[in-house]
Amino acid sequence: MKLFIYQHCPFCVKAAMIFGLKGVPVTQEVLAEDDIETPTEMVGRKVVPILQKDDGSFMPESMEIVHYVDRLDGKPHLSNRHNPTVGEWLSATKDMTAALFIPRFTKAPFAEIVTDSARARYVKRMSDWVGDPDQLIKETPLYLEKLQPHLAQLEQLIVSESAVNGMLSEDDIHLFPILRSLTIVKDLVLPPKINAYVENMSRQSKVELLRHMAI
Q: Can you give the residue ranges of the GST N-terminal domain (predicted)?
């Protein structure tokens, strides 16, 4: 199978995670941010991630890919265990976490924005969403201060460094990509329990963290 992704994309991380967690081989291919034609030919619109199955057909939507791969062998890896508070945490923090990692994404050496035209398109798209990247980076201390009590809350929610609820579940598929995105923030120090979870989940899923390009 082949997985078409952007390296920065949290939704692509969701899809990539299930392959690593289950040990299912997949080839990853990065699409350019300004490549509209390729994904449109595959699924009718510009979107990632896209999975090309063994039969050559294409599947978009991160969670559909997760469910498909997890159930391929008839032995789902993800439990039905669910903590609504994890989703509530993600919802409550989405604006402040986005304000921290998205401006840095616009400046990082991701393969999908390596060309001037691709980067310009991405910067425009993200600026329309979250605001001026340079200004947001200047406001990093403010957003870090806002995030701290929420990180303290999250640390209390993490049952194990191997799984937020003690057993791997969809909550991990939703939580880890956001925490992985935050590893691009140079000045952010994750509390010990969250950091252990992030490091372990990266190893389990074989999804690289972003600390090597932190800004």
A: 1-77
The list of the chain residues with pLDDT below 70 reads: none
Give the pLDDT of residue 200. 98
Q: Quick one: pLDDT at residue 96? A: 97
> H helices of the chain, where?
10-22, 37-43, 62-70, 84-105, 116-130, 133-138, 140-157, 170-182, 192-205
Q: Is the bond into 109 cis (omega within 30 degrees of 0)?
A: no
CATH, domain 2-71, list 3.40.30.10, 3.40.50.1110, 1.20.120.450, 3.20.20.80? 3.40.30.10
Interatomic CA distance for residues 171 and 168, integer angstroms: 8
pLDDT, tens digit (0-9, with 9 covering 90-100), for 58-105? 999 999 999 999 999 999 999 998 999 999 999 999 999 999 999 999
Q: Are 24 and 54 within 8 A, CB to CB?
A: no
CATH topology of domain 84-213: Glutathione S-transferase Yfyf (Class Pi); Chain A, domain 2 (1.20.1050)
User: Which 8-state DSSP code applies to residue 75?
Assistant: -
